[in-house]
Amino acid sequence: MSEKILIKNARAIVTCDELDQVFYGADLLIDGPRIEKIGHGLPEQGAHVIDGTGKFVYPGLVNTHHHFFQTFVRNMMTIDYPNMSVPEWLDKIYPIFARIDGDVIYYSSLTAMADLLKHGCTCAFDHQYCYTRSTGKTPADRQFEAAEQLGIRYHMGRGTNTLPRELGSTIPEEMLETTDEFLKDCERIIEAYHDPAPFSMRQVVIAPCQPMNSYKETFVESVKLARDKGVHLHTHLGEGENEIMVERYGKRTLDWCREIGFVGPDVWIAHGWELQPEEYKVMGSTGTGVSHCPAPAVLGGFPILDMRAMQREGMLISLGCDGSATNDSSNLLDSLRMAYLMQAFHSKARGGSLSSYDLLKIATVNGAKTLGRTDLGSLEPGKGADLFMVGTEKLELAGAVHDPANLLARGGVTGPVDLTMVNGRVVFADGRLTGVDEERLAREGEAACTRVLRGQFKEYWTAN
C-alpha cells in the first residue's frame, strides 16, 4: 500500500495548470508517486502530514540541457570563458575533458544533481558526450547510479562525437567513437534503463553532440534508432556552427537536420541563438523544441533569444543550466532569474517582455513537454508528485509575497528552497539531502577531482 502525504495549509499552491490556478491556504494530497487532490480542509486519512504554513508550493523545475561532467572544471580563472574566443577555449578545455574517468563522471554528476535538487529541480536531462579511454562505456551506468542515490528524476542523453580533428572537428582523438559503437551502446542503455511508463524515474535520449563534430551517418542512424525505440533526440544547434556547416554541406544546420529527419516533436536542440526568424517557422511547424541556456549566452556574449517571436511561430521553449564549463552553476532558479532579466533587456525594442510567471511555465510545463512527460510539469490531480516549497516568512521577502506566481524570477528567489519532493518522496529538506552522507560524498568528490584532473593539470588550477 502506497504512503499518503498531505501538505497542509500551504500559503499558496502555484499549479501552473492550463487555468493558471493558484490556491491559497490549501492542502495537497499525494498518494505514492501521484497527486491525488488539491483543496481546502482535506482530511488527513492517515497520511504523513507536512506543514505548509507560510510556504509557497511550486511544480518541480525541469532542466532540459546540461553537461554534468563539467562540474569539476569550473571556477577556473586560467580558462576564463568570457575572455576567450571559442577556439581558444576549446583548445584548453578539451585536453582536460579527455582525461576524465568513471569516478569523475559519478562524483561530478552527484555534484550537479545535488545543486539542481537544492534549487527546486526535480527532473533533469544531461547531455553526456564525454566518453574517453578512461571512462569506457560506463558514463550512463555511473550517472543512473548517482541519480538513484539522490532520488532525482533523470533523463540521460547518450551523446557522442565521431568526426576526427583532421576532418574539421574540435574533438581530441581520445574522445572519439565510431558510429557503430555509439549506436550499440545506445541500444544497450535503452534496454537496461529506459522506462517509458508514467512516473518513470529514468529515461534515455539519443543525443549526438553536434553536427559539425560528427559524421552525417551518425545523425542519420540516430534518427532511425530513436524512432525504432521510441525515444527522443537532442543535439546542439544554432550556436555558431552555421558558417562551418554551410562551407561543409552548402546549407545551414537546421536545413541539414530537416533533410535527414532530425526534427519533430520528439526532438529538441540546445541554445538556438543563431536561429533566424524564418527558421522559427520551421521549428514551430515541425514541433522541434529549443532549450534556452541563459548563463553561457551571457558569458559568451551571444545574442539573447527573441522568445516572444519564437512563441508566435509555435516554438516550444524550455530552460537549461548548461554545463559548468560555461556556467559554473547547476542552479536552475538562477537560470530562471537570468532568463527573465535577459528578456526584459530587449522589451522596448521587441514590443514587450515575458513575465516572470511565463518563464516559470517555460521551466516547468514546457520542460516536461520537451522531454515527452505528460505526467509532469504542473500540480494537478493525476500528475507526478514533483514539487518544491519556498518559505515566505522571511524578512527579505516582506512586501513581495502578494503574487506567488511571479515571485521567483521577479523577486530574485534563487537560494536553496525549503523542501524538494520527487515522485512523492522528500529528497531535500531543512538544508539537507535525505538518505545520503553529503559531507562524505563531497570529500570523495574533491579527492577524485584532485586525483584525476588537478593532479595532471596543476597549472590550470592556479588563479591569476
Describe the structure.
The termini are far apart. The chain is of the alpha/beta class and 464 residues long. The protein has helices spanning 86-97, 102-118, 139-150, 179-193, 216-229, 242-249, 253-260, 277-286, 294-300, 307-312, 332-345, 347-350, 356-363, 365-370, 407-411, 438-454; strands at 4-14, 22-31, 34-39, 48-51, 55-59, 61-63, 121-128, 153-158, 202-206, 232-237, 267-271, 289-292, 316-319, 387-391, 419-422, 425-429, 432-433. The strands form 2 sheets. Strands 1, 2, 3, 4, 5, 14, 15, 16 and 17 form a 9-stranded mixed β-sheet that branches. The protein contains 16 helices and 17 strands.
The main β sheet shows up as: 9 strands, mixed
From the helix content, strand content and strand pairing, which structural class follows?
Answer: alpha/beta
Mean pLDDT: 95
User: What is the overall shape?
Assistant: globular
Helical fraction equals 25-40%
> Roughly how many Å is the radius of gyration?
21 Å
> How large a portion of the residues is in β-strands, by DSSP E?
15-25%
- Tally of helical segments: 16
Parts with pLDDT < 50 across at least 5 consecutive residues: none
Q: Looking at the chains present, what oligomeric state does this protein adopt?
A: single chain
First-residue to last-residue Cα separation: 59 Å
The tally of beta strands, per DSSP, is 17
